[in-house]
Amino acid sequence: MAEAPKRVRTRHFARAKEQGIKITGLTSYDVLTAQIFDEAGIDFLLVGDSAGNTVLGYDTTLPVTIDDLIPLTRGVVNGVSRALVVADMPFGSYETGPEEALHTAFRFMKETGAHAVKLEGGVRSAKQIRRIVSAGIPVMAHIGFTPQSEHGLGGHVIQGRGEAAEQLLADAHAVEEAGAFAVVLEMIPAEVAKRITAELSIPTISVGGGPHCDGQLVVWTDWAGLTGGRIPKFVKQYANLRQVLRDAALAYKADVESGAYPDEAHSYSDESAEQALRDRTD
Ligand SMILES: Nc1nc(=O)c2c([nH]1)NC[C@@H]1CN(c3ccc(C(=O)N[C@@H](CCC(=O)O)C(=O)O)cc3)CN21
Ligand SMILES: CC(C)C(=O)C(=O)O
Ligand SMILES: [Mg+2]
Fold this sequence. Notes:
This protein has helices at residues 10-19, 31-39, 51-54, 66-79, 98-112, 126-134, 150-153, 164-178, 190-199, 220-223, 241-258, 271-281; strands at 23-27, 44-47, 84-88, 116-118, 139-144, 182-186, 204-207, 215-218. It has twelve helices and eight strands. The protein has two domains: 10-239, Alpha-Beta Barrel (TIM Barrel), CATH 3.20.20; 244-281, no CATH class. By secondary structure, the protein is of the alpha/beta class. β6 (182-186), α9 (190-199) and β7 form a beta-alpha-beta unit. The chain has an eight-stranded parallel beta barrel, surrounded by seven helices. Bound molecules: 5,10-methenyl-6,7,8-trihydrofolic acid, 3-methyl-2-oxobutanoic acid and magnesium ion. 5,10-methenyl-6,7,8-trihydrofolic acid binds at residues 50, 53-54, 61, 147, 156, 219, 221-222, 227, 230, 232-233.
């Protein structure tokens, strides 16, 4: 029997940073992609509230609820044997304080089997991070462009340019100090991400944060060419699934309409029924 792969733990993140081995992450929202990315050796899968865009068809992540994400997260957990699964805490599920944050984290840990949670915000979320970590739950932090505050930030704006770099450094230090095991840096200048990566002892995970971070994370539907419409500049295309699936649907429709599908090889037969039918018509 094949030996089960060694699970990625949060310790792996710290070791990877020490050894200069890059950490790889993708989002996932279902068991099928979780299995595929796990088999490919992706270190962690984030069940992002980006599901609001990629699965549910909203324009922003703001309407996404805990109850939307729990079944998706469970599906991803069911698909992995090695990757670490991170549950993204949605807008309105942790901001009022540490107790609300811990309650939400408990729900994800108990109801999904995820291995860690993620929440947005630096200094402003430090108390929440500290409380969740104190209950033994690993927390991935997320600073820079935080999509749940996109209205407050004035849209999809690159963060940490010029003077704002100092605030970003303060946010990075605050989440490390609060006990986060890693921090996502979203849409910030590469130079600033490089400085944060050098100053922190916990690994930095880039989402549009340039090449100097300790790891990278992308929304998988963007990366695989499945997302319709605009995708962020920092995303490189690794596949064109939209075209692959459209071509498959077109070929299927043509075959059904022409009668080419289903043929004998894709149908069932019952010879005794055929015989009975023949007997009756004889
Ligand atoms: N499909 C998807 N991909 C994501 O990366 C993503 C989501 N959804 N939902 C949640 C947040 C929102 N994010 C976004 C959304 C838009 C841009 C964007 O349009 N960026 C522009 C620059 C800003 C502008 O000029 O509008 C870009 O071209 O990079 C970036 C990140 C990242 N996250
Ligand atoms: C873009 C990443 C960091 C995220 O939070 C998500 O996918 O929801
Ligand atoms: Mg998110």
